[in-house]
Task: structure prediction
Amino acid sequence: MTRHPAVVAGAWLAGLLIAVLVGVMISVAADRSRPGPFRGQFALVDDRGEAVDQSIFHGSPSLVYFGYTRCPEVCPTTLYEVADWLKAIGPRGKGLKAYFFSVDPERDTPDVMHGCVTAFTDRIRGITGAPEEMRKVVDGWMIHASRLPGADGDYHMRHTMSLLLVGADGRLKAMIPYGMDRDAAIARIEETLLARTSDPA
Result:
């Protein structure tokens, strides 16, 4: 049976659209190497209204995630996982910091961020502030973040979904891609950020 040309064209366009969307998702989620330690300077605030600058990336190892509070699935899932990982690691991870940087600072006020992060754990520190200051951090870590138009003039954010593992020296050590197995993620954190060198004999 011969298919109508319009049906064939419609199927071809649908296939092309799906291929493009898959490509976008892969590029956003991809783990890309980032050179050297974070060297940018910025002035932001945390979810309790305290000043935050580039010094938070130095002195303690940290889990760093970029997302937004209106995210329907990826961000809340990741925050839930981070809370679970920290609990599973236990006392050994006492000095490990966790930061949730908003890629939607215009809507994510300190109060909004506070309500979001504390719903999961008191170990995650929400970071927000002026969009131009947040852009310095986003660009400094080579994070992808862009707006997608939504219904009724609203918008959503498309952003890198991987979580960064940053050493106490401010250097990116590894990444945890979205959806990574729980035990594998915990092992990567322990091996990458909490590994202890043996005491000299």
